[in-house]
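# step 3/5: fold
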Amino acid sequence: MKIKRIILLIIILSAVVVPAFSQMMLQPVAVVNLLRPEMISREALDAKVVELKAANNNQELQESEVLDIMINDILVLQGAEQAGIVLLDKDLNTLVANQKRSVESQVGRSLTDAEFTSVIMQAYGMSMEDLRTKIKQNYIVNAYIRQAKSEMVSNIPGPSEDEIKTFHKKNAASFINSEYIHISHIFISKSDPAVLNPKEKAETVYRQFEYGTKSFDALVLEFSQDESTKFIGGDIGWFAIDDTVSRQIFSDSFFDAVFLLETGEVSSVLESKTGYHIVKILDHTYPKLLSLNDPLSPDNTMTVRQYISQTLYVEKQQKVFSAAVSELVKELRSEAEITNLL
């Protein structure tokens, strides 16, 4: 399906606020004071202009507009602090863990912390520290808006059936399932110091299957070094042919090879970035135009109807939240002392 597979479930604030102690030698362009003075430096403004320009297809932006965005972000965060809204570290850890599970559900397998960090960096250019900061800011700001503007953001109506059908008709080309495979594997790691020649070991294991000495399932249980799947027949789930994240984790050559196999077929030894695999194809599906009642993909039980309903509701929610934020910022600006030095 032509829908971006990795979706971070956060709304990111635009401001990156440099701590006051590190700004003392920097050139100020604005000072915002609701709870306490907070300076925006020339360096921070220039960096934000570059960031927003890149995010908006290199569209030219006025410095004054970008500075207003940064001022508004500081006001909202200080306003949330003034309202007593906090997020404890243990709760932040839970939100980050939820984010990791969301990514894993879309990738179709468990990720190590290092793999998760790599996915976030490759897909969004964020470090883990950046991600934690964004999730924390998002939580605090959303909680603040819901508290300060509860009358605006409560009871947002869901989309009607006609709205769902119209969206589906207008975006039918987006609801095409890619080619998918469901695979299990026997995995021999490149990084195990106890295995001097992992490729040779993988070839030896494959010969036992090829000559009929042992079944694929028996070899998985005896030899596979993927501890998360060896007790479930080596099943690592479904993969789409256009799954760029999984291609980054395994390799393009590995993906191209497994997508040439048909249901029930077992590969010879295939190399990925992390090791050697003997792959069995459990199922192989081909591109399909999806109706409203079809699941989004073989590994996702959400239907197209449910997805569209959720998408339209989020759009409505964002419009309401945008209006609430505008009203809240206007109120905060009237209370705050803002010095614009541009």
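# step 4/5: annotate
DSSP finds 13 helices and eleven strands in the chain.
# step 5/5: archive (pending)
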